Amino acid sequence: MNVTFKRHRRLRKTAAIRAMVKETTLSANDFIYPLFVTEETNKKTEVPSMPGVFQFSLDRLNDEVAEVQKLGIRAIILFGLPHHKDEIGSEAFASHGIIQKATKQIKEAFPDMLVIADTCLCEFTDHGHCGIIREGDVVNDESLNLLVKTAISQAEAGADIIAPSNMMDGFVAAIRQGLDEAGYVDVPIMSYAVKYASAFYGPFRDAANSAPAFGDRKTYQMDPANREEAVREATSDLEEGADFLIVKPALSYLDIVRDVKEMSDVPIVAYNVSGEYAMVKAAAQNGWVNEKAIVLEKLLSMKRAGASLILTYFAKDAAQWLYEETQGGY
């Protein structure tokens, strides 16, 4: 054969060579594990649409955090299910709120575990929206005041990182100012900078009991059709003081992860959301896909796109699989 071509397969010949030239890797340090905490007692309740994901009462929470820590995962993010909801979500910023109690408990028992507090009102309002409602709409600036109170109260409880997810305009600037004035200048903000109004959130709303009672969230979350808008949102959050930028969802938005990575110099977090988790679980339970292979491949794709960290319900499984691969050697 008299043909000239390059032999790329030389670097794929053995497992050792493939490992040597691997460009992107995964480790437990990459993962943030979401935890749902409820006010109930002695409860560990599986979310029907998310097999393997549970709501934990405070008295069952430490066992789960211990397992997470044992797997080498160093960060968790907390979502709360309060007993009481009202029109302004007052349990979100109460010193005795479920997130505040869970944070104090975890930091006391596991001081090295990073606790990230999701800062929003939708889990705590009786209408399920992320701010104050006036004439059927979420009002921006009044809602900011409550979000600042929530962030300060979470920092007072010991949260290591504040993660505002509400998508109000100016939320990073307002929260940064509030934290600084309260003396929490060293508490970083992990902003949900680019959050689309996505159909992939359905199972989360079951888990957090946070579906909107009317309408939708399209006046504050982004249109999935828009790419340039993502850059504008991320730019605003950087200018306002964000220390991390989250892109949510992840799998259908890897182009956005790459865009945000290229325009910023802070760590990018890909949120591998509940719908993405549920689809893989359902397919795996039916024997249609190899769960381990497909999960590790899609998490790797998020790192390859530019994510420094991945917020994922698969964190425990992935950490365990990665550990087993290391023990097996290659």
From TrEMBL:
- Tell me which positions the record assigns to the signal sequence: none
Pfam short name (any one): ALAD
> Which UniProt keywords are given for this protein, alphabetically ordered?
Heme biosynthesis, Lyase, Porphyrin biosynthesis
User: Has UniProt tagged this entry with the keyword tRNA-binding?
Assistant: no
Q: Which terms does the record give in the GO molecular function aspect?
A: porphobilinogen synthase activity
Q: In which pathway does it act?
A: Porphyrin-containing compound metabolism; protoporphyrin-IX biosynthesis; coproporphyrinogen-III from 5-aminolevulinate: step 1/4
What reaction(s) does this enzyme catalyze? 2 5-aminolevulinate = porphobilinogen + 2 H2O + H(+)
Concerning SMART domains, the annotation shows: ALAD
- Give the EC number: 4.2.1.24
Which superkingdom?
A: Bacteria
Q: Indicate yes or no for the key word Lyase.
A: yes
Instruction: Give a short account of what the protein does.
Output: Catalyzes an early step in the biosynthesis of tetrapyrroles. Binds two molecules of 5-aminolevulinate per subunit, each at a distinct site, and catalyzes their condensation to form porphobilinogen.
NCBIfam families cross-referenced by the UniProt entry: PRK09283.1
Give the multimer and partner information: Homooctamer.
What family does the entry list? Belongs to the ALAD family.
Name of the featured protein: Delta-aminolevulinic acid dehydratase
